[in-house]
Amino acid sequence: MIAAERYNTVALFTLVRRELIRTMKVINQVIWPPIISTLLYVFVFGLALGNRIQSVQGVSYAQFLIPGLIMLQVIDSSYGESSSSIFQARFMNFIQEMLIAPMSAFEIVSGYVLGSLVRALLIAALITIMGALLVHTWPVNWALYLGVLCLVSLLFSSLGLIFGLMAEKFDHLAALTTFVITPLTFVGGVFTSAQMLPAALRNLELFNPIFYTIDAFRHSYTGVSYLPLPFSVSMIALLAVASYAIALRMFASGYKLRT
Amino acid sequence: MTPAIEIDHLVKRYGDFTAVHDVSLRVESGEFFGFLGPNGAGKTTTINAIVSLSHADSGRIRVFGHDNREEWRQARRLIGLAPQEYNFDRYLSIRDVLIFQAGYFGLKGPAVRARADMLLERFGLASKANQEYTRLSGGMKRRLTLARALIHEPRLVILDEPTAGVDVELRLELWALLRELNRDGLTIFLTTHYLEEAEELCKTIAIIRDGRIVTQQPTTELIARGASLQEVFLELTRA
Questions:
Q1: Which of B54, B73, B104 lies closest to A98 in CB terms?
Q2: How far apart are CA A118 and CA A41, in angstroms?
Q3: Which of B92, B97, B119, B172 has its CA 20 to 30 A from that of A23?
Q4: Structure confidence by residue, pLDDT tens digits, B109-163
């Protein structure tokens, strides 16, 4: 009955399963709202207003919109899942169940990250199906589609853990979403191509990490990107690994977990 | 026989405040050990250091011979903690609280599910197995805390005021359960403010005051001079 000594994989996957149970218990808060809001974006911006816009990157505006909307929701759900879950566990102190168990920082962080990834993949799959049915667009490069999704989810779920540990109240978590993530996502190319922007703004986009994620992910749909694909993917991978390493370090040191 | 807990010169500071000063303790395997002291004396800090919720500034803790820093997986696997406060996962049913706790300890499968059902039955919670813990009474939550501490079959269970806030009937019921568990070979480390509870249950008692152990001896010797445990406690813990 005792798990292997070096890694407690049973514990890791127990935490992933726990995160999925949590997701299903709050499905009306975390799965349906992003799907409904994406549906509205597609109808209002894509199909209604989009008819007035000529093709973007060789596809209709509605088709251009779908990968950006997937990224928008993947970023939001990955950050929201891990940050709120770890914050609640700290706030209600049931994080102790894991802290007293033979679980390493790697197993705890990876459990939360994988739990966020599964939620993000579910949302991405639903929006992908919606895009295929409503505007007849789907990825042309599935490996890139999955690779970028996983890296972006890793990046933002790790950030969620970092801020979920630092936050003293729920308000702090919302502040990062409201003042940083949402604005950067909206100006990061969800609704516009970099080529539509004035040159000065286009250069500013290079300082927006979310721009890289959307640009690379859109390539999996359109086969076209503003920045060279290897550069964007490398940037996302670098940021994801750095965020994961910081989250791991915080858990290993017991930051705000162990006195 | 390897002791259940060996604490050597434990020191824990919070900034300028030293919560635990050079504490050394030895709890024998199979013992029912009482750890008493006034509020703020260092009981919870010591417990937190044993279960790794707190980093010691210096000193060493071994659990059944395993250093809780160097061999932390082995040490943690042997301990069950029943904290004073209810801290159950609000998204899980009562049965799942036990099964998931076992999962965090690296256990899964039919044996774990059977043990969860056995514990729920033994603690009178079987009829509530699929409910959320928020629907349990205070006494039931207390029993669930104990069941959760036992799900991974630890050799040592640490009970932080297990009968705080429960009625007399449940307290007696819990005492009977604890005695039974101890008879079955489980080492019990108990903190309590009810001195009659310690006197009734514990074979050995240590008293801590201002972060220092002021006595550790068999209960019978502690009260041998005809004084009650309450009188001895007050004498040792008054400044």
A1: B104
A2: 24
A3: B119
A4: 999 999 999 999 998 899 999 999 988 988 889 999 999 999 999 999 999 988 8
Phi, psi angle pair for A141, to nearest 5°: -130, 95
DSSP label at residue A228: -
Structure confidence at residue A70 (pLDDT): 96
Interface of B with A (CB under 8 A): 14, 48, 51-55, 72-74, 76-77, 79, 81, 83, 85, 87-92, 96, 100-101, 103-109, 111-112, 148
Residue ranges making up the domain that contains A154: 9-253
**What is the tens place of the pLDDT at every residue in B49-59?**
999 999 999 99
Structure tokens, A81: 């899942």
- Give domain status of residue A259, yes or no: no
**All domains of chain B in start order, with CATH:** 5-78+154-237 (3.40.50.300), 89-141 (no CATH)
CA dihedral of B31, B34, B40, B45, whole degrees rounded to 10? 10
How far does the CA of residue A226 sit from the closest CA of chain B (Å)? 44
Residue A3 forms part of a structural domain: no
Least confident of A158-167, A204-213, B56-65: A204-213
Report the candidate in B114, B216, B124, B134 with the shortest Cα–Cα distance to residue B174. B124
pTM of the full predicted structure? 0.92
Q: Are B76 and A100 in contact (CB under 8 A)?
A: yes
Residue A54 covered by a domain:
yes
Mutate to test the interface with B, among A26, A92, A100 (most CBs of B within 10 A): A100
CB contact under 8 A, A22 and B109: no
Q: Are the beta carbons of A10 and B83 separated by less than 8 Å?
A: no
For residues B189 and B202, give the distance between their C-alpha atoms in angstroms, rounded to a whole number. Answer: 9
Chain A residue at shortest CA distance from B102: A11
Q: Is residue B86's pLDDT more than 80?
A: yes
Please indicate, yes or no, if residue A2 is contained in any of the structural domains: no
Q: Does residue A195 or residue B99 have the better pLDDT?
A: B99
